[in-house]
Design a protein that fits this description.
Elements (H helix, E strand, L loop, with lengths): L2 H28 L16 H21 L7 H15 L5 E8 L2 E10 L4 E11 L9 H18 L6 E8 L13 H11 L3 E9 L28 E5 L4 H14 L4 E5 L12 H6 L4 E5 L21 H19 L4
Parallel strand pairs: 3-4, 3-5, 5-8, 6-7
Antiparallel strand pairs: 1-2, 2-4, 6-8
Helix pairs in contact: 2-4, 2-8, 4-8, 6-8
Length: 337
């Protein structure tokens, strides 16, 4: 064997090894999550979850049926939705608005802040967008996420978090503002960075109300379909690689404290669906963010369609999820049991 041929074979062996080892390394870093997802029948709803299911239904019906389609094309309805978020968040403190102009119209991010008692400069943001896509009343996307923000604010209103805790209703997540400078969460995250705020965790509650136990009901972008279940009966915690530690912490806490199926992924943000909500805005400004979601278009047949109405939402399962997310927020914000 000539020296040149020997060098070529060595190179081929090295490249071949990398071709095998690198994907395995990526998998080990991004896919495995702590704890075990709940399997089997769900336990009966607790009294708290029964009440929570009713509250979620009430808020989603208000946003999706009584107010209806809400976006800059239906600006009057968008303002009514902002007013509703304002009234309901006020249970947790004084509500403030970040008002700016989008499509020539006044728009509002609506927030309430509970200042931390021990490390107030460390901030946890829990948010969900309250607008809907054009031509759609947006019950699941994202009436459920907005309702969950309200439910968490109500439940935690009388607590004393060690860290500062913010509940935010974001405007203009949907097209044509999505991923633009007019997207509400972009405007908000940009201001956070300009103020040099130390946001230690951001949770985006995005489309959390549809579940199916049918085989094949869950789809994924390639190659994630190789690693996850085919039944769309779980809640997902999704982040980019930089948010991996926060994803794993959320999954661990949820699995320890909630009897509900869950999956997690900390994967490259360029994969389809991974950045499709307000958490991506926080990535853009150097913060860790996680999307909590039923995976929206990868499961929900009425995504961005007129059929996205309250009757499609499973409020009981949604209540189980929100109850579990509350336990995560309590831990992140340093709220005593």
């Amino acid at each position: 064997m000539t020296p040149a041929r020997k060098r070529l074979l060595i190179r081929l062996a090295v490249y071949g090894g990398l071709f095998i080892v690198f994907p395995l390394w990526l998998y080990s870093c991004m896919i495995p999550m702590p704890g075990k997802s709940h399997r089997g029948p769900l336990p009966p709803l607790s009294p708290k979850q029964v009440e929570l299911s009713s509250a979620l239904r009430r808020d989603v019906v208000e946003l999706a049926e009584k107010i209806g389609e809400r976006n800059t094309y239906r600006h009057d309805a968008l303002k009514k939705a902002a007013d509703y978020m304002d009234r309901e968040l006020s249970v947790a403190g004084k509500v403030s608005r970040q008002t700016y102009t989008a499509a020539g119209k006044s728009c509002d991010n609506v927030e309430v802040e509970m200042r931390g008692s021990q490390t107030p400069d460390e901030i946890v943001v829990v948010g969900g967008h309250y607008d809907s896509v054009a031509g759609c009343v947006g019950a699941n996307d994202n009436g459920t996420g907005a309702a969950a923000v309200l439910a968490l604010a109500r439940s935690l209103a009388k607590t004393s978090p060690a860290r500062t805790l913010r509940f935010v209703g974001f405007v203009n997540e949907e097209p044509p503002h999505f991923r633009s400078e007019e997207m509400g969460s972009r405007v908000y995250a940009k201001r956070c960075r300009e103020r040099e705020e130390n946001i230690v965790a951001m949770l985006s509650l995005e489309t959390i109300g549809f579940y199916s136990d049918d085989d094949g009901s869950q789809k994924y972008p390639t190659p994630l379909d190789l690693f996850y279940p085919s039944q769309g009966n779980f809640i997902a915690f999704v982040g980019n690689v930089g948010s991996g530690s926060l994803v794993r912490r959320c999954v661990r806490l949820f699995r320890e404290r909630a009897a509900f199926p869950s999956e997690g992924a900390a994967v490259p943000g360029f994969l389809p669906g991974v950045g499709w909500s307000d958490h991506e805005s926080f990535w853009e400004y150097g913060y860790k963010g996680v999307m909590v979601t039923d995976t929206a278009p990868f499961r929900y047949p009425h995504y961005h369609q007129q059929g996205d109405t309250p009757d499609k939402v499973d409020f009981d399962r949604c209540a189980r999820v929100v109850d579990g997310v509350e336990q995560i927020v309590r831990e992140l914000a340093g709220i005593a049991p």
